[in-house]
Design brief:
Elements: H1 3-12, H2 14-21, H3 29-37, E1 44-48, H4 54-60, E2 65-70, H5 73-86, E3 91-95, E4 108-114, H6 119-123, H7 128-142, E5 143-157, H8 167-180, E6 183-188, E7 191-192, H9 196-207, H10 209-218, E8 222-223, E9 225-233
Parallel strand pairs: 1-2, 1-4, 2-3, 4-5
Antiparallel strand pairs: 5-9, 6-9, 7-8
Length: about 230
């Protein structure tokens, strides 16, 4: 899908996006993996590219405080609504660029991004190493000594085994591991829908007509997905 397609969704279809990600990882394997990688209870967490707050809600179950940021105000408005309904109160949302968080240095025990930094590969073209490097620098600036940085990105929607969906993302992931010292693991975060109609509509609007057609053809209500986790303690 084109870069403009995703920008349009983040600007104008936040509610539909939130419905889609709400069907993701019904078994809770991603959050279980995060709890294995680092301590979350009682911590201060800074989240980059929070979107509609799906990950924010999970982090708020254990962290003492979560500061969550996104560049798209409509996504934050949807996150505000959902977080308020959750009854949780130890979170703060604000608009910000991933390269410049409005927080002081050394304020976080954990910094995390989910499905955000990877967009720079398409949006920044040949400049993505510079741009993602600035994002990683900002993560490190915010971390306390011995804090942990976590990166979460796709390893394939609609497939049972992990594989970067584009060569650009494959280069990004290798760069994180080989040049920046991040460790890596992956988990299955399958989507589960209430009906084939819902699966076709929600997956089609975000991922496009080819995946929607597969869902209809195979009558899928569960779609496999692989998600990668990269982490480093500084």
């Amino acid at each position: 899908m084109s870069d403009d397609h995703f920008l349009n969704i983040y600007a104008h279809q936040a509610e539909a996006y939130d419905r889609l990600v709400g069907r993701e990882d019904q078994r809770g394997l991603l959050f279980a993996a995060l709890m294995e990688l680092c301590r979350l209870d009682g911590t201060t967490v800074v989240e980059f590219g929070a979107g509609t707050g799906r990950l924010t809600r999970l982090l708020s179950l254990m962290a003492r405080r979560v500061y969550a940021f996104d560049f798209a105000f409509p996504m934050l408005a949807q996150a505000q609504q959902q977080l308020t309904l959750s009854g949780l109160s130890h979170w703060r949302l604000a608009q910000a660029d991933n390269r410049a968080m409005p927080l002081p240095a050394g304020c976080a025990d954990v910094v995390i991004e989910g499905w955000s930094f990877g967009h720079a590969v398409g949006w920044s073209l040949g400049d993505w190493r510079v741009q993602v490097g600035l994002m990683l620098d900002e993560m490190r600036r915010l971390l306390k000594p011995h804090g942990t940085a976590i990166l979460i990105e796709t390893l394939g929607t609609g497939q049972k085994q992990p594989s970067p969906p584009t060569e650009g993302l494959a280069q990004l992931y290798r760069w994180w591991q080989e040049e920046h010292g991040f460790q890596h693991r992956w988990v299955r975060t399958d989507y589960q829908f209430e009906s084939v109609d819902e699966a076709e509509a929600l997956l089609g609007f975000f991922f496009g007509p080819e995946l929607a057609a597969r869902v209809r053809r195979e009558q899928l209500t569960i779609l496999p997905e692989c998600t990668g986790i990269w982490w480093r303690t500084y």
